[in-house]
C-alpha cells in the first residue's frame, strides 16, 4: 500500500549546489567512454599534506574517537583565534570560536541565530547557491546584489548594495575573494561596505573560504575595518587552504553572543565536530607548512596556464585574479560566433565536442536586471596541467571552427 506523504512547504525553497548537477552530466559523458576535462567542480585533486594525515592517525590511535566539547577542542579554538588575531588584527579568544563540520554549516547557523522570517538578507549573485537556498529555506527574503568588472578584476556593486537596503534588511553576506568570479574588494570597497553596515545596522557574514588561496600580495579582511568585529561572523574552512575538502571541518568566528548560540546549535545538529579530525586541523594550523605552500605553487601554475590559453581563444576574455582557484571568463562573442543564445545548449555542445565540463553564470543565480554579457566558470583546482592544456586547446579549436 502506498502511503501519501506531504512534505513541508519549506522544502520547495530548498536549492542545491548546481555544480553537482554539471558533475552528474560530466560523469554520464565519461561513462559513455568519453574523456572529460573537469573544470566544473571546486574540489582539489591534491593530497592533504602528510603531517595533517599523520596527526589524524595519531589522534585515532590515542583514542580521540568520542564526543568532544560542542564548540570544539580548546586547543584548536585557541589556535584559530591566534591565527585570526595575527592575520586580521582581531582580539579573539576561544569564546569567539565555534568549530564546525565544514564551512557550509556556518551559513545556516548564522541565519538561524540572527534572521527572523520575513527579514531581508543581501547576498551576492552570481554567488555560492547555498546562500539563497538557506535564506529562503529558513523563511527569509533573499535580495541579490551583483559584481561588476573593473580594470584588473571583478569587484562588488557597492551602489547596488546600498540601493537594495530597506527597513526590512537585517543581514549582509559578503564573499570577498569570491566564488565564482574571484571578485576582490579594494581598500576603498571594504571601507564603504563597513560604513554601510554601520549606517544601516547590518550584521554581516564574511565568507572567507578563499582568504588563504592567494598568489600575489596579501589578503585583507573586512573584519579589520573599524566596527566590523562587533557586527560580523567569519566563515572559515580548512577545505581549500589545506586540501581538506572531504574532511569536513571549518569554524565560525565572531562576537561571543552569536558564537554562544551557534555552539548551542552544534548540540542540536551534530553534537560536535568529528573529534580526531580536529587534531588534524590543529596540525594544519600549527605544523610544518611546506606542503601547504606547494599547494599554492601548483594552483598558481594552473591559473597562469588557464588564463593564457583562455585569452588565446577568439571571443573569450579572462582576468588573471590574485586569489581563489576560479576563473570567470566572458564568452559573449564566442557564444554568438557559434550561434548559441543560452547556456544549456552551449555547455552541452562544448561537453559533447571537446569533453570540457564547466559551469555557467546561470548556475550561480538568475541574471540581474541589465545583465547582457555571458560568462562561464572554470575551476582549475581538480585538473592537472597536461589535461588543462589538452582540454582548452580542444575548446579553442571547437569555438574557432
Report on this structure:
- By secondary structure, this protein is α/β, with parallel strands linked by helices.
- The protein has two domains: 9-47 and 291-400, Aspartate Aminotransferase, domain 1, CATH 3.90.1150; 66-286, Type I PLP-dependent aspartate aminotransferase-like (Major domain) (Aspartate Aminotransferase, domain 2, 3-Layer(aba) Sandwich), CATH 3.40.640.10.
- Helix content is 40%, strand content 13%.
- It is built from 13 helices and 14 strands.
- The protein has helices spanning 19-31, 50-61, 74-88, 104-114, 129-137, 158-164, 187-199, 256-269, 275-286, 290-310, 332-338, 343-354, 385-400, and strands at 37-38, 97-100, 120-124, 141-145, 147-149, 154-156, 169-174, 203-207, 232-237, 250-253, 326-327, 356-357, 359-360, 376-379.
- Strands 2-10-9-8-7-3-4 form a seven-stranded mixed sheet, sandwiched between helices. A three-stranded antiparallel sheet has the order 11-14-13, with helices on one face.
- The longest helix is centred in the C-terminal third of the chain and has 21 residues, at 290-310.
- It is globular.
- The model has no long low-confidence stretch (mean pLDDT 96).
Amino acid at each position: 500500500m502506498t502511503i501519501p506523504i506531504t512534505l513541508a512547504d519549506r522544502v520547495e525553497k530548498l536549492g542545491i549546489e548546481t555544480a553537482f548537477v554539471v558533475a552528474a552530466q560530466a560523469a554520464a559523458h565519461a561513462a559513455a567512454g568519453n574523456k572529460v576535462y573537469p573544470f566544473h567542480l571546486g574540489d582539489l585533486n591534491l593530497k592533504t599534506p602528510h603531517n595533517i594525515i599523520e596527526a589524524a592517525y595519531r589522534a585515532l590511535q590515542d583514542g580521540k574517537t568520542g564526543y568532544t566539547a560542542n564548540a570544539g577542542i580548546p586547543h584548536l579554538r585557541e589556535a584559530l583565534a591566534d591565527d585570526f588575531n595575527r592575520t586580521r588584527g582581531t582580539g579573539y579568544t576561544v569564546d569567539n570560536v565555534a568549530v564546525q563540520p565544514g564551512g557550509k554549516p556556518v551559513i545556516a547557523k548564522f541565519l538561524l541565530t540572527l534572521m527572523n522570517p520575513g527579514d531581508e538578507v543581501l547576498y551576492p549573485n552570481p554567488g555560492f547557491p547555498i546562500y539563497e537556498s538557506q535564506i529562503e529555506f529558513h523563511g527569509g527574503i533573499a535580495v541579490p546584489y551583483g559584481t561588476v568588472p573593473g580594470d584588473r578584476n571583478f569587484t562588488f556593486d557597492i551602489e547596488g548594495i546600498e540601493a537594495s537596503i530597506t527597513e526590512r534588511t537585517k543581514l549582509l553576506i559578503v564573499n570577498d575573494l569570491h566564488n565564482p568570479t574571484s571578485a576582490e574588494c579594494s581598500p576603498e570597497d571594504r571601507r564603504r561596505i563597513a560604513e554601510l553596515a554601520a549606517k544601516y545596522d547590518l550584521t554581516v557574514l564574511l565568507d572567507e573560504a578563499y582568504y588563504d588561496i592567494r598568489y600575489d600580495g596579501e589578503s585583507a579582511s573586512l573584519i579589520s575595518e573599524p566596527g566590523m568585529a562587533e557586527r560580523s561572523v567569519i566563515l572559515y574552512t580548512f577545505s581549500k587552504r589545506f586540501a581538506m575538502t572531504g574532511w569536513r571541518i571549518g569554524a565560525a568566528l565572531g562576537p561571543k553572543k552569536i558564537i554562544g548560540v551557534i555552539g548551542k546549535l552544534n548540540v542540536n545538529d551534530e553534537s560536535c565536530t568529528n573529534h580526531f579530525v580536529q587534531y588534524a586541523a590543529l596540525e594544519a594550523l600549527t605544523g610544518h607548512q611546506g606542503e601547504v605552500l606547494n599547494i599554492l605553487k601548483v594552483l598558481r601554475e594552473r591559473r597562469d596556464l588557464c588564463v593564457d590559453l583562455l585569452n588565446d581563444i577568439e571571443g573569450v576574455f579572462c582576468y588573471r585574479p590574485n586569489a581563489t582557484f576560479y576563473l570567470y571568463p566572458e564568452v559573449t562573442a564566442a557564444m554568438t560566433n557559434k550561434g548559441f543564445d543560452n547556456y544549456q545548449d552551449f555547455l552541452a555542445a562544448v561537453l559533447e565536442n571537446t569533453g570540457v565540463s564547466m559551469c555557467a553564470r546561470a548556475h550561480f543565480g538568475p541574471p540581474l536586471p541589465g545583465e547582457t554579457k555571458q560568462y562561464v566558470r572554470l575551476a582549475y583546482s581538480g585538473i592537472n596541467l597536461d589535461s588543462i592544456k589538452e582540454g582548452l586547446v580542444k575548446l579553442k579549436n571547437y569555438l574557432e571552427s
